[in-house]
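batch job 7 of whatever, protein = Ribosomal RNA small subunit methyltransferase I
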Amino acid sequence: MEIQKSFKQEGASLYLVATPIGNLGDMTPRCIETLKSVDLIAAEDTRHTKKLCHAFEIETPLTSYHEHNKDSKGNQIIALLEEGKNIALVSDAGLPCISDPGYEIVADAIKAGYAVVPIPGANAALSALIASGLVPQPFLFYGFLNRVKSKKKKELEDLKYQPFTTIYYESPHRIKETLQVMLEILGNRRVVIARELTKQYEEFIRGTIQEILEVADELRGEMVVIVEGTTEKKEEVVWWQDLDIIEHVNYYIEQGHSPNESIKRVAKERKLAKNEVYRTFHIN
């Protein structure tokens, strides 16, 4: 067990700093102060973060940290923490680690004994959820579905019977296919698509999957897709459903159980009286 006291910490810290998801006005004073005070900012895209830093007069040096260099840069960041340097991690928009790189360096920093401090701010998933009009809790954040259609179908099959609201991210060139697969697997549920969040053209499209499919070709920008949960229950499939009672009892006998113990097990699994199973097995 380890206990982190973020504001009573000796040594260096890794700060996870939220950045705007569209509107620069969502950059909090604490986020700005943190980015100014750390020794280095690790950014998903340094070109994008340079513009953000320029807007808020942040002169802290930048380094890249993204999906393709996270192993080598992660080692460098841990080394800098060992030197007593405070590091801020940012993604292009929103909170680090949410469908963006960051989890690995967070885990490594914690393992090495350094504090990991969240600096909260804008988040697309929660912003879309609270304005969706769908039940806001409990919810499941899933992020991006697989790009491969067959794998996407498998993911949605696994999620089909979730009773709570589910949140996905999707890109404009895959939204139509995703909605079509959702309709096929989940049925015609209520859905809310939030696009261009916090920007001038922010838009919420609320309706059934079939209704939204009618305008899917017109949708642009990164999207959050909120899908209502279901009250439908998954039909329970039992391994012995194709066996008759005698075959069922013999299965357990073949596993090394006594006939009497096998009959007890079968009676319990089939929710039958033991005597009924006994008679069926011995009479036949």
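notes: The beta strands are 13-17, 40-43, 62-64, 87-90, 115-119, 139-144, 165-170, 190-195, 203-208, 223-227.
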